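Run log // design_07
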């Protein structure tokens, strides 16, 4: 069985929407509001090296697909297995530049079947709605969080108001010079 990891940038008040850009009033908060400390992002490189697959929700796919395939920083993700969960995309695949297309999954049950197969960890980037649905279905095994010292007050949050109680076990934590805190949690079952 594959491990499913939700990895995200997060503000202290739980907002994960538009960390790099977009239409949110505070879009770009990861680089506009906090001084760069490259050490804080080492987790992202490690994730990419260890990932067996990238899993996105439809909104994150729409944001990432036009950009990531052009960036050398994401070569492992670009060349590897990619999936998007969507009920609105047509067909069984979706484009990802010159790379192999993204396979379209239609439901949480499809993600469960993917997880039950063989392969390396499945990483969910961004994708707040999908992450909440996967947590509600008890499919998340681990959280990789980079918590930024910001309060945005509004925006999509990693954890919804109507989710169920879930105990977590802290595996790793580190705080960087710019105030970002890395927190890696396993889901306790």
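design_07 sequence
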């Amino acid at each position: 069985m594959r491990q499913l990891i939700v990895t995200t940038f997060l503000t202290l008040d739980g907002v994960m929407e538009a960390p790099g850009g977009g239409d949110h009033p505070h879009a770009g908060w990861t680089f506009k509001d906090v001084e760069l400390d490259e050490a804080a992002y080492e987790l992202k490189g490690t994730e990419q090296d260890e990932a067996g697959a990238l899993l996105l929700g439809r909104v994150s796919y729409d944001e990432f697909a036009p950009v990531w395939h052009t960036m050398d920083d994401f070569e492992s993700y670009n060349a590897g297995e990619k999936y998007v969960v969507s009920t609105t995309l047509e067909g069984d695949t979706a484009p990802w530049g010159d790379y192999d297309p993204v396979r379209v999954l239609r439901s949480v049950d499809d993600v469960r079947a993917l997880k039950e197969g063989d392969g390396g960890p499945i990483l969910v980037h961004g994708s707040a709605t999908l992450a909440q649905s996967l947590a509600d279905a008890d499919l998340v095994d681990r959280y990789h969080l980079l918590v930024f010292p910001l309060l945005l007050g509004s925006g999509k949050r990693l954890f919804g108001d109507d989710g169920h109680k879930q105990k977590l076990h802290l595996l790793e934590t580190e705080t960087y010079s710019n105030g970002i805190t890395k927190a890696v949690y396993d889901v306790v079952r």
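The chain has one domain: 4-187.
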